[in-house]
Amino acid sequence: MFTLIFIFFCAYSVNTVFSTGCESKGNCEECIQEVDCAWCMEPLYPLNPDGSKPQTHCRLKNDTTKWCRDASKVSPKSGMRILQDLPFSNDTDNPLQVKPQRIKLALRKGEKYELKFQYKSTENYPVDLYYIMDLSHSMKEYKDDLARLGSKLAETMRNITTNFKLGFGSFIDKVELPFVSTNEKKLKNPCPGCASPYSFKNHLSLTSNYEEFVGNVKAAKVSGNLDSPEGGFDAIMQAIVCKETIRWRKQARHLLVFSTDAEFHIAGDGKLAGVIEPNIAKCYTDDSEYLKYDYPSVSQLNYVAEENNINIIFAIVKKPYASLKESYATLSKHIKNSNFGELNSRDANSVINLILDNYKKIVQSVKFTSNSTSEIDIKFSSTCKSPIPGRCNNVHIGEVLDITATIQARECLPDGQKSTFVYLKPEALHQGLMVEIEVLCDCPCSSKTHPSYVPNAKECSRQGDLKCGVCTCSEGRFGRNCQCDSSISTSEDIKNCIMEGSNEICSGFGKCQCGKCECDSSSSRDEKIYGQYCQCNNYSCKKENGLLCSGRGKCNCGVCECQAGYSGDACQCEESTTNCIAPGSDSICSNHGSCVCGQCECKMDENRYSGKYCEDCISCPAQRCEELRHCVEYKAYNEGVYKTETPPNNCTNFNPEVSKKLDDIPDKDVKKCRILDGNRCIMNFDYYYEERTLIVRALDHKVCPVPPNVLAWIAGVVTSILLAGIVMLIVWKVFTTIHDRREYAKFENEKKALKWHNSENPLYRGATTTFANPSYNRPTSFSPDPVISTSSEPDIHVLDEDK
Ligand SMILES: *[C@@H]1O[C@H](CO)[C@@H](O)[C@H](O)[C@H]1NC(C)=O
Ligand SMILES: *[C@@H]1O[C@H](CO)[C@@H](O)[C@H](O)[C@H]1NC(C)=O
Ligand SMILES: *[C@@H]1O[C@H](CO)[C@@H](O)[C@H](O)[C@H]1NC(C)=O
Ligand SMILES: *[C@@H]1O[C@H](CO)[C@@H](O)[C@H](O)[C@H]1NC(C)=O
Ligand SMILES: *[C@@H]1O[C@H](CO)[C@@H](O)[C@H](O)[C@H]1NC(C)=O
Ligand SMILES: *[C@@H]1O[C@H](CO)[C@@H](O)[C@H](O)[C@H]1NC(C)=O
Predict the structure, then answer these.
(1) Which GO MF terms does the UniProt record name (predicted)?
(2) How many A from CA of 550 to the centre of ligand 1?
């Protein structure tokens, strides 16, 4: 049994190349930290579906093959347990608006868990309102308003919640130049009827007695300072952090109303008075500390306000210029859960309306937050009616919201930390849901006390511990079974891993492990590398038509092992000769060639045979015509030699299709046959192959010679001669007639020309000058006669001239 295990372990290497993420994980912890993977903690497993070889102990957890027994699979599941689930309550001291209150969550790393819980805005939720007022002289009017309206404010708030407390504080500025005049007289009495200046004073801690509030506001005296910005930040900080003095209740909504008509000093302004130490965000026990520490910064205020669930409402006196409003609007954007509004000097109720409006805004808007660190990712969502990202608006008192927190552990917790606590709560409220999160990153089988843990195991050559099914080798040992000793020289080992004639260790396809090659597992499941030097594989054989060994054999170390009936280096050859015999024939390649690899190779002699069955040649028109003629003659026309004698068996192999015309068939090599039969008639037929069947087609009639008709012939000849003669005669007659007419017309024309034309001898030269002989007796007037002139002899005229 153990030798078998050993063989399993030796044959396959751990250092392999795998495809999926799971398979590359070498130990249980790494494996289960991938959310989709499961680990098999048995040494014999896992198996391939065919039971063949162990590949890796880590697989996809939804792998349905029997690769590991279910009991041995390590794949922790996320789960939740409710530890405390009290009903919603509007109890004065312990109101519960979130349900359940305590939960324990076990989370697989990377997995997203949807935690569902509820929020209900309960009636009479406790409210603390602390009013801080700028008591510089210019605010007197507003102080008087507040004193007047104090009882109305309390009443209005009581209408909302019976559980309401009110407090009052005021501020001027740091008592130092240049903020406040330090002139002794001015210090005592900065303005007529004014109190000495101070930084911040708590006049009244939170109380439900609003008459006290009214009394305190009335009694508070205004004071005076020098510069225009005031030290309000110091006051806000102190009002938030001095929890005992102000008496903020933990389980209450905290409203801090900050009322002023001036700008504020910011961190760094303290330098003007020589105060350089930054603010420490602590409650001062002594007034001198205001001169020790600078004004707090905006981010400090933001931090303490969020930390202490304080909603700040900036109630700013309306001014004709915009800059004051703008400063506070910007400030409220930078402080979480803060709001901003303007007081109108003409409307005394404006302070109540401002508080009421902002209070409604605060109560109706619910947003959940958590204090999770980067390791735990938490996102909130809700099914509320008017959601804006991450927030529910218009939440009414008594309405129950279903909240879903999607929790994902991004990292394992630091070593030694079992679990972490995360608090989920609505912004600016105290009560929430405490979640204890345990991130499942460890395998129980890794523990030395686990039953599967074997120290110095046989499987590990007694040189290591068997942990979660794999060997953890002691120092200096390695290999899958800790079979290798790193202290022994390895040059001899490596020699044993190199094949003769090669210079690569394990042919480049494996690792040398103490003198033995451990071949790589190929990236694909159907590829295998093997052999003593990993020189073999089952995927590099010849391919035919894209198929390894034509798909008709196994590839073994580069050679195709063909199935029966096939041969060739890629199993591409069929051994049977059926493909070489023409259908309806019994000779291989028509006796003009040999059958090689299932196909005819024709003899290349003087006839140059060709065709699939070597049935064609240049000098022999369609080879099988002779062979088929008698059967065709008998079957198509019921004539020929087989009419008298019984046809041989091979005639039954086909039945000629008889048709009127023998059309060509595209893509088919149709062989045409014209055969002269005994009666000097021509028989037309053709044949071709459809797969392995012979198809013969014959013309529905033979073409026989017709005897000539002598009489008709003679008559035809005579008629045609006669006709030809007549035609020629007519033609001749027409010709001669036309000719005669033309000649006559010509003669007539010439006759006309003779009569009219007065021609002149071309040699004649007309006289240039004409003189009349004066002696010539002539009629009374001298007028040369044209007729005489033209007919007179030139010689005489010339002579006359000379004279
Ligand atoms: C198994 O899980 C993987 C990764 O989550 C997924 O891609 C695959 O489709 C799952 N297969 C089955 C059969 O569920
Ligand atoms: C709690 O709310 C109920 C109605 O929801 C009310 O009747 C009861 O008086 C409230 N209790 C307190 C202590 O406010
Ligand atoms: C308180 O509520 C009652 C009834 O809703 C109303 O009549 C009264 O005016 C309210 N008081 C104040 C101060 O708003
Ligand atoms: C979150 O807040 C709770 C309660 O205040 C605290 O116990 C827990 O340690 C805090 N968690 C972190 C991660 O800061
Ligand atoms: C190669 O071997 C593997 C493992 O035995 C097998 O799954 C695969 O089908 C084989 N491939 C071929 C082409 O024979
Ligand atoms: C049938 O066999 C006879 C005798 O062997 C042969 O002469 C004839 O050509 C064959 N006919 C066919 C159609 O093969």
Answers:
(1) integrin binding; metal ion binding
(2) 33
User: What sign for the dihedral angle of Cα 502, 508, 509, 511?
Assistant: positive
Q: Above 60 in pLDDT, residue 410?
A: yes
Q: Is the pLDDT of residue 691 over 80?
A: no
**Is ligand 6 within 6 A of the CB of residue 631?**
yes
Which of ligand 3's atoms lies nearest the C-alpha of 158? 1
Give the domain ranges of the chain.
Answer: 1-75, 88-122+371-440, 127-364, 543-574, 631-706
**Residue with CA nearest ligand 3 atom 4:** 159
pTM over 0.90: no
Render pLDDT for 24-72 as a digit per residue (tens, 0 to 9).
788 889 899 988 899 988 876 655 554 445 557 888 888 777 778 888 8
**Structure-block tokens of residue 452:** 């599967």
SS3 721: helix
Distance 663 CA to ligand 6 centre (A): 26
Is the C-beta atom of 373 inside 6 A of ligand 4? yes
Number of neighbouring beta carbons within 10 Å of residue 557? 13
Ligand 2: which residues within 6 Å by Cβ?
90, 92, 123-124, 162
Q: Which residue's CA is the closest to the ligand 5 atom numbered 8? A: 526
Class at the top of the CATH hierarchy for domain 127-364: alpha beta
Model pLDDT, residue 10: 33
Taking the C-alpha atoms of residue 519 and residue 89, their distance in angstroms, rounded to an integer, is: 69
Nearest CA to ligand 4 atom 13: 372
Q: What is the CATH number of domain 631-706?
A: 4.10.1240
Residue 787 clears pLDDT 60, i.e. is over it? no
Architecture of the CATH domain 88-122+371-440: Sandwich (2.60)
Beta strands in 679-748 (DSSP E): 682-690, 693-699
- The DSSP symbol for 781 reads S
Chain centre to alpha carbon of residue 446: 40
697 DSSP 8-state letter: E
Minimum-distance ligand 3 atom for the alpha carbon of 159: 1
